[in-house]
Design a protein that fits this description.
The chain is α+β, with helices and mostly antiparallel strands. It is built from two helices and four strands, in the order αββββα. The chain has a four-stranded antiparallel β-sheet with strand order 1-2-3-4. The protein is globular and about 45 Å long.
Length: 139
């Protein structure tokens, strides 16, 4: 049997990777408050993928990792307004079940994986030309 990495150790690994910029291209993330000992609230950004209506835009997101993370997925909201299937038009909440890469959540998935999945979703041929709200609009 493989030992389960405790929540805070896992979040420290993700924080270190995010702070060192070792993550995927076009995605970044970090704690909202450096003294958040529970490491629950995170900010993230996604650079709009090239050759899409998202190009040259920076999308801000907030991520909340509950007490059961990583066994349960975090809650992800766009702060920047976006027109994208799987994102609630009223409040920006992301429906992870609509993102193929993370739809069947397991504890090995990370916040970075979610951000990469969102960026891929934005670049999908069916989504890349969707009309977008003016820049700097927020939920």
């Amino acid at each position: 049997m493989v030992a389960k990495v405790p929540r805070n150790f896992r979040l420290l690994e993700e924080l270190e990777k995010g702070e060192k910029g070792l993550g995927a291209d076009g995605c970044s993330y970090g704690l909202v408050e450096g003294d958040d000992v529970m490491m629950s609230n995170w900010n993230a950004t996604i650079l709009g993928p090239p050759h899409s209506n998202h190009e040259n835009r920076i999308y801000s997101l907030k991520i909340h990792c509950g007490n059961s993370y990583p066994d349960e997925p975090p809650i992800v909201h766009f702060i920047s307004r976006i027109n994208l299937p799987g994102v609630d038009a009223q409040n920006g909440r992301v429906e992870l079940a609509k993102l193929q890469r993370v739809s069947n959540w397991n504890r090995d998935f990370t916040m970075e994986r979610i951000l990469v999945a969102l960026r891929e979703h934005m670049a999908h041929p069916n989504h890349r030309k969707l009309h977008q709200p003016p820049e700097n609009n927020t939920y």
